[in-house]
Design goal:
The protein contains 35 helices and 32 strands. It starts with a helix and ends in a 5-residue tail after the last strand. With 947 residues, it is α+β, with helices and mostly antiparallel strands. It is 33% helix and 22% strand.
Length: 947
């Protein structure tokens, strides 16, 4: 019904188009040999061949796995792999090669799946199967403990849904079973009908029973091997179908001689276990977490071709269980129970584990990209899916590629398929990312498949030549329908960075959709284009049709819930003395935090979540925006109290350990959240630490002193800092006696400007050295767009900014600032790429080096992950000279850090533009400008109001 409604809304056909599944080598081996196939996986510890062969200490390499497969006819042994499952698949593939079976052309139909299904069910009631370690044999043994008429009766649904081989055979007969697993029940009923000499059955009661009793010796042996667990009470979650009711916990009371499905049936108000249906396992394949619900005729009869219409006829809209369907990925009607209980492959005893409301809401949270990240960090109320992957050393929690794989498994999709394209520099050109690149065609040169990836041939050569990598990813449904494809334009020097960045793009786009399922298709396409994503609307909406309830679950993380970040939160309070050590973009902040649920009227507080040591990267949006905004206003040692409203009850219940108490508190009208945060430590970006370690004073301070020198020489009274960031230059200038009367900063980072405003405001009001400053303004806007308020300044600065732009934007900035803003003097600094070889030889750099860097060439890396380019002296001088000639400026070159007389020159190269007296050359290519105030004022200070 729900699928049909969504399809109709999108103008799609409701017919299900199913493609035949392609079996893995291991699945083919299992179908042909079953339990006769014996896999043995061994660990292989390889020594690490390093550059010191005479080293006495053995260097341990990575742990690898090798698999031996024993079949009745042959035995094989695989190579070594990083994962056990890869070794098993490789061994299976070798066995198939020896048997002359091609996995790509293998047709299960040749095995006559119907006869195989009948034989499998027949074997399930044999004497030998009862004593095996198998989930289905556990049910068969359990029903032999039932009393009265129920003795020995196993539900048909158990045979159809618990035995993987029966499920696979049902899918072979009808691939639609993959979408609607309960269709397999009708095939089991048909198969059982042909086994009347072995079993009794009842169409009405949906049970099967072996006719002849098991031999006493089999029963005695089974009793000796089994240990009675005694009675148990298992915590479960009851999920009402009514959206007006919330889930609550129940207990399943299973007696020592009882059958646990009878306890489930009792909670659902059913006569016996034959009326109970269960979903496939939720989460891992080995999990026993399932959703249980009442059966109906639609699930057990032979379904017509128009399955969606049949559901509409059999069920009312009100009986559709949105939350249970969302959790299980299967359309469920009526009330349901979530429980972790069942029989496993390892033990004969009943496995069970208590579930709570926290468990339930965390399982729902795990179906969303941001939820997977929150859970990996153990910070449901504080963490947020980062907006950028910078470096491996700065990332905390599960990596984007791992999150995307988890997301696909949660939604029963194929693992993501990655394609790595290597881009190598032309051999005739020198090292440096600014050179032209050529593309290797992996389709021509061949590919290697491993770990769900397609690795381009020639990738090793790309690394050795200082080349880069671009990664693409595709996501398919279980029927091999393409759902999402992402082909980024960006390339990276590390293979791992390309994998992680393409994964993060897909995650960010999916996360935005899950937070607003009503996003118009036009807007969805637009956001996909921005992230280099293409998707098939029909396949996409079908894949996530059951997930709509999650939108309300995550309301607290939506843009609408965030509101205007420039507004201070009522009651926000920062305590403690100012230490002077503050975070900046790219730095790692270490905090402790706690989140309390507060009832204002009674002053009641309940702890929801706390973390004594929580690290995150500033500027990557890896925490909720309120926390990052507060941290940007703090220094090390300070604490902050942040009151917030309650946006998502479900998110809170996923965090708390005491759901019953918290639920009662949430009913209060005056409840709110209170975050208490303490900033313990700030680790500066590697670039800053390298510069501080090699230069005294640090390069940043040397650049400020260079600017101060020119201010004093020219007696400048007005200054504008293009790309002021958190105001470090403006802040430093206030420590010097200068002729400045007006200072202005411009930046596109609102958060950085807020921090700059706080710093400048306190210093301007307290520092006597700033007495000459009459006006200070901070603007939020792009420095490549014209604003008349930025024109005519005595001096302009742009220190270490242009390298964060694309190169064409750096040229545009030069045109705009020199042709329209026209400062008398413009000081521009940027890293000298040629100096990187010295910086990156430092011990500090080597200590922080990513292990993957060791496999790369000796070509220099950029100093900062956010740098789009870094220029040599020749390139920088060419850029500055062309702009100066074009706009009638003279230009001088200098720098700080090192010496201009000694190779490779200054660490930071500087160009000083001075305005000429003659009109600039006519240029028809100058950027078009609209005389409009495009910048918005974030903060303004008037010296006449100085305290």
């Amino acid at each position: 019904m729900l699928e049909q409604r969504l399809a109709m809304e999108n103008g799609e056909s409701t017919d299900v188009v199913v493609r035949k599944s392609v079996l893995t080598p291991k699945a083919i081996i299992y179908q042909k040999f079953g339990n006769d196939a014996c896999y043995k996986v061994e660990e292989v510890q390889e020594s690490n061949q390093n550059e010191c062969p005479g080293l006495a200490i053995i260097q341990r390499g990575p742990c690898l796995y090798r698999c031996s497969l024993q079949l009745p006819e042959i035995s094989v042994r695989s190579g070594t792999f990083k994962k056990k499952k890869e070794a098993e698949q490789a061994a299976s593939e070798l066995a198939l090669q020896k048997l002359g079976i091609d996995p790509l052309t293998y047709n299960i139909a040749e095995e006559d799946p119907w006869n195989t299904l009948v034989n499998r069910i027949k074997f399930s009631f044999s004497n030998e199967f009862l004593t095996t370690l198998h989930p289905l044999s556990g049910h068969l043994r359990a029903v032999l403990q039932r009393e009265g008429d129920l003795y020995g009766r196993v539900p048909v649904s158990v045979i159809a849904l618990i035995d993987p081989k029966v499920s696979n055979l049902s899918r072979s007969i009808d691939p639609k079973v993959e979408l609607h697993p309960y269709m397999g029940i009708s095939y089991v009923k048909k198969a059982v009908a042909g086994l009347s000499e072995i079993v009794d059955t009842s169409d009405e009661q949906l049970w099967v029973k072996r006719k002849d009793p098991y031999p006493l010796e089999i029963m005695d042996l089974d009793m000796q091997q089994s240990v009675s667990p005694g009675s148990c009470s298992v915590g479960a979650v009851y999920i009402p179908c009514s959206n007006e009711k919330t889930a609550y916990t129940v207990n399943l009371d299973v007696s020592s001689s009882g059958y646990y499905l009878d306890a489930v049936a009792n909670q659902l108000g059913l006569m016996d276990a034959s009326k109970v249906l269960m979903t496939r396992p939720i989460g891992r394949a080995s999990s026993e977490v399932r959703v249980y619900f009442a059966t109906s005729e639609i699930y057990v009869s032979e379904l017509p071709s128009n399955h969606s219409n049949a559901k509409t006829d059999m069920h009312s809209e009100e009986s559709y269980n949105t939350w249970a369907s969302c959790l299980s990925g299967e359309a469920i009607y009526g009330d349901a129970i979530l429980a972790s209980i069942g029989y496993t492959w390892k033990y004969k005893e009943l496995f069970h584990e208590d579930l709570t409301l926290q468990s339930y809401y965390r399982m729902l949270l795990n179906k969303v990209p941001s939820g997977v990240y929150k859970l990996s960090r153990g910070a449901i109320l504080a963490a947020h899916l980062p907006s950028a992957y910078t470096t491996r050393t700065n990332w905390r929690g599960s990596f984007p590629r791992e999150i995307l794989c988890t997301f696909c498994r949660q939604h029963r999709l194929f693992e993501p398929v990655y394609s790595l394209v290597s881009i190598s520099e032309a051999p005739s050109e020198t090292s440096g990312s600014h050179k032209k690149l050529k593309l290797r065609d992996s389709a021509v040169e061949g590919t290697d498949h491993a770990n769900g990836s397609i690795v381009a041939a020639g990738s090793k050569e790309a690394v050795e030549s200082g080349g880069t990598f671009r990664c693409e990813v595709k996501i398919y449904s279980k029927f091999q329908d393409l759902i999402i494809e992402c082909s980024p334009k960006e390339s990276y020097k590390k293979q791992s960075d390309s994998y992680q960045n393409v994964s993060l793009k897909v995650l960010i786009w999916l996360d935005a959709y899950f937070m607003n399922f009503n996003t118009p298709l036009i807007k969805l396409n637009s956001s996909a284009d921005e992230l280099d994503i293409k998707f098939n609307p029909t396949n996409f909406f079908k894949a996530f049709a059951l997930c709509r309830p999650i939108q309300s679950f995550l309301y607290g993380d939506t843009v609408e819930a965030r509101g205007d970040e420039s507004n201070a939160m009522p009651g926000q309070e920062i305590r403690g003395p100012v230490s002077g050590v503050s975070p900046s973009n790219g730095s790692l902040a270490c905090i402790s935090y706690s989140v309390m649920l507060v009832i204002k009227s009674t002053n009641t507080k309940e702890l929801l979540e706390h973390n004594d040591e929580f690290e995150f990267e500033i500027g990557s949006s890896s925490v909720i925006h309120q926390i990052e905004a507060a941290i940007m206003l703090m220094t090390v040692g300070q604490s902050a109290i942040l009151p917030m409203g309650v946006h998502s009850q479900e998110l809170i219940l996923a965090a708390t350990d005491d759901s019953e108490r918290v639920l009662s508190l949430l009913s209060a009208k005056d409840c709110c959240l209170e975050y208490t945060i303490t900033l313990y430590q700030v680790t500066e970006p590697l670039e800053d630490r390298m510069e501080k370690a090699l230069f005294s004073p640090p390069l940043s301070k040397q650049r400020v002193e260079y600017a101060v020198q020119h201010i004093r020489q020219t007696c400048a009274t007005t200054l504008v800092d293009f790309g002021c960031g958190s105001g470090s230059l403006l802040d430093s200038l206030l420590n010097y006696q200068t002729s400045l009367e007006k200072i202005v900063g411009v930046d596109i980072s609102h958060k950085s400007l807020i921090r700059a405003a706080k710093i400048l405001h306190s210093k301007l009001n307290a520092n006597e050295a700033c007495a000459g400053i009459k006006s200070a303004i901070l603007y939020d806007g792009s420095i490549t767009e014209f604003d008349p308020r930025l024109c005519g300044f005595d001096i302009g600065t742009c220190l270490e900014v242009i390298e964060h732009m694309e190169e064409d934007q750096a040229w545009l900035f030069g045109d705009v600032v020199l042709s329209y803003f026209c400062p008398k003097i413009l000081i521009v600094s940027t890293p000298n790429y040629e100096y990187n070889v010295i910086l990156q030889r430092s011990n500090l750099s080597n200590q922080e080096e990513d292990p993957e860097d060791k496999t790369q060439s000796q070509a220099c890396k950029f100093r900062n992950h956010d740098h789009k380019f870094e220029w040599t002296r020749e390139q920088f001088q060419q850029w500055a000279s062309d702009l100066a000639t074009k706009h009638n400026y003279s230009v001088e070159f200098s720098g700080v850090g090192g010496s201009g007389e000694v190779e490779p020159g200054f660490a930071s190269q500087i160009a000083v533009f001075r305005k000429g007296t003659t009109p600039p050359l006519a240029d028809n290519d100058s950027p078009a400008v609209v005389a409009d105030n495009h910048c918005s004022i974030v903060w303004e200070w008037d010296g006449s109001t100085r305290l």
